[in-house]
Every structure is written in structure tokens, then in C-alpha cells.
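Workshop exercise sheet. Pairs work together: one partner reads the sequence aloud, the other fills in the structure field after running the prediction. Swap roles for the next sheet.
Pair: D.N. / O.F.
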Amino acid sequence: MAKRELSIEKAFENLDGIIEKLEAEDTKLSDSISLYSKGVKLLNDCKEALDKVEKQMILLEEEGGEE
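Structure field:
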């Protein structure tokens, strides 16, 4: 099954939700560990997406804006 990519905006939105849950006083330790793990994965996905965009921008700049 192919991996479905989240938009970077949706990934940041999900990260915000994870942070809110981690900051909540009633979050259990086991839930916190799971949330943290999901957050790390989302951060890595965001980093990859941003790196990809950065590379595209560099290529466009080198080509003088032509595709």
C-alpha cells in the first residue's frame, strides 16, 4: 500500500494537536510516549518536505526561473 502524504500544513496542524495533548495534565505516561513518537515522525516528515522544497528552489534559482 502506498504511503499517503500529508500536506505540510496538515502535518503542522497535527503537531499542534499533539503538543496540546502532551501539555495536558491528565495525559497518561503511556499516551505521552505514543504521542511523542508520532510527533517525532511528523517532524521528520516535515523536515523531508521542507528539504525537498528547498532543493527545488535552488534548482529554479540556478536555472534563472525557467523550468
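Discussion prompt: Residues 29-62 form the longest helix (34 residues). What would you look at next?
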